[in-house]
Amino acid sequence: MGVHMSIAGDWLQGPYVYYLYSTYGFGKGDIGQLFIAGFGSSMLFGTIVRSLADKQCRRRACVTYCITYILSCITKHSPEYRVLMVSRVLGGITTSLLFSAFESWLVAEDNKTLYVVTPCQRDFEQQWLSLTFSKAIFLGNGLVAILSGLFGILLVDLLSLGPVAPFDAAACFLAIGMAIILS
Question: What are the percentages of helix, strand and coil residues in the chain, rounded to 5?
């Protein structure tokens, strides 16, 4: 459940990043540089962040994802280019964590159980892991994305809360996800 809340936080804000920057008055060139900074940050810090997650606690890496992404969401309230650049760098780091920490934590926990069970149960455990990843793709990248998009439309268009509303909602989802992870 914590991972779904965290993924919802990511999907909720994604469609509104460009829109937010344009409402702050930035042109295509500046917005492009902000996006490049986010993707470059993910490329640059991805290996380091993933390595630290493997060496440190994977659960801690998932919590770090939530905290870092909440900070990225909070900085969206500033129309300052430099603050938004920091936000994009943080967002790039979180992308690396999202697509590595949660999965590696699940696999590591599953591997711990493999050493405890009998050989007959190992096949079931491996099947369980495969089924879990299949459901995560459908729920996390499918259903959660659709519901998050609809919720974003509700916030911005129907309730007229402004282009920063999805980022505030994402921060709330991430905080809930972090609480679930910590418990």
Answer: 85, 0, 15
Name the one residue in this structure whose structure tokens are 């999907």. Answer: 11
Q: Which two tokens stand for residue 108?
A: 């590591």
- Please give the tally of structural domains in the chain: 1
Encode burial over 115-152: b for 16+ CB neighbours within 10 A, e otherwise. Answer: eeeeeeeeeeeeeebeeeeeebeeebeeebbeebbebb
Rounded-to-integer distance, Cα 102 and Cα 81, Å: 31
Given pLDDT bands bounded at 50, 70 and 90, which one contains residue 125? low
Please tell me the distance from the alpha carbon of residue 118 to that of residue 75, in angstroms, as a whole number: 50
The span from the first CA to the last CA of the chain, in angstroms, equals 11
Contact 4, 178 (CB under 8 A): no
Mean pLDDT for the stretch of residues 67-96: 96
Place of tokens 């914590």: 2
Return the closest-CA partner of residue 174 out of 108, 94, 100, 103: 94
CB atoms within 10 A of CB 182: 12
CATH of the domain at 44: 1.20.1250.20
pTM for this predicted structure:
0.86
Q: Range of 98's domain?
A: 2-182
